[in-house]
Amino acid sequence: MDSRPHDRLDELQRDPYPYYARARDAEGLTFVAELDAWLVARDADVREVLRRADDFSSAGALRPDAIPAPAALAVLGGGFGGRPVVVGADGDRHQELRAPIVKGLSPARVADVVPYAAERAAALVDAFVNGDQGSTGEHKGGRVELMSAYARRLPGEVIGRIVGLDPADIPAVVHGGYRAEELLFRPLAEDEQIAVAQDVVATQRILDRYARARHAEPREDLCTDIVASVTATGDGDAAPELTLGQRHEAVSHLQNLLIAGHLTTTALIGTTVLHLLRHPDQWELLCAEPERIPAAVEEAARYDTALQGFRRVTTRPVTLAGTELPAGATLFVAFGAANRDGVRHPGPDDFDITRSPVRHLAFGFGAHACPGSQLAREQLRLTLQELTSRLPGLRPAEDHPVTMRPTMIHRSPLSLHLTW
């Protein structure tokens, strides 16, 4: 990582909202050294950047905060991936990469997986509730760490089902996703980097096995769609085996899709439950009036956005919010800041599930809007249905203060200890 103080970057990542407020109030754009980027914090400016994809390129959207050491890069060199993915592509190439994902996460496919998601949500809650039942079956006081017992499990199982993964492989794939994020966005000692890189490569090899298997024997799943997209030649014929380049490309797409499909939804579940329970009046209202759950989902996504933002790079000299930027300037386009902009959201710092709906930017906007937004919403809806109906007395555990994960990509509690 560069010379920026780690503690200042951690402070920003754990609570970026004071930085956002200052940037919204300032004239023009604000350059934030901790991000090494111009911070785009107002709703109107964020929307302008996202509309002008030709002027603000997505290349480097996920530029790492930490560059792995040569020894870790050598380990990564023995794996797969490293090819362009949808989040960092522009123009026609972006549309090509996005097409199989949009198909795989279509409303029909999401509807098909909802019964499975509902079954798994109920089973995961059963697992931590049933251990706290008396002999009569009535609930005694209990406790759970929700992130590990539920939030990190449901999204992986659901996206794994859509992709076509064997349930036995899903824990390793989820673990690999977190390790990839850790390697690129956290300062680690070299020996830690090597260990993390080994986990990432192990995950890539699992995904390569799936890619080769789906090429040989296609199925009705998203893995097959992605493999087909990287092997399409236009003549309808497929080679008996994937080339090495095609394997790298397929693994890149699968790895990116799976990370986006479970880390973001996990984060959203964690922050939603956290803020509802920190506002007991809102939680009690939701328990009494479950028809408000869809509105609660939208308010939670707006109030503390899981994916705080992406980087963009100017392709030519441009002026944004009165600030002149040269070609090659890096911006951090902060969805989380735009969602607290009082010009669009009155009382933006109030968590209020009764507020009149106004379209937010929690799932992006424009060409790069999240194709999995409906899938995430459905999982959050199911989660709130389960928890409000079965555990209305849920509350934060006073002996476990909440600390947020130091990341701008998947903002969530490190852990969430709850009691009832």
UniProtKB/TrEMBL annotation:
Matching Gene3D superfamilies: Cytochrome P450
PROSITE patterns the record matches: CYTOCHROME_P450
Alphabetical UniProt keywords: Heme, Iron, Metal-binding, Monooxygenase, Oxidoreductase
GO molecular function, one term: monooxygenase activity
Iron recorded as keyword: yes
Any single Pfam family the record assigns to this protein: p450
InterPro entries: Cyt_P450 (IPR001128), Cyt_P450_CS (IPR017972), Cyt_P450_sf (IPR036396)
PANTHER family (alphabetical): CYTOCHROME P450 YJIB-RELATED (PTHR46696:SF1), P450, PUTATIVE (EUROFUNG)-RELATED (PTHR46696)
Family from the record: Belongs to the cytochrome P450 family.
Name assigned to this protein: Cytochrome P450
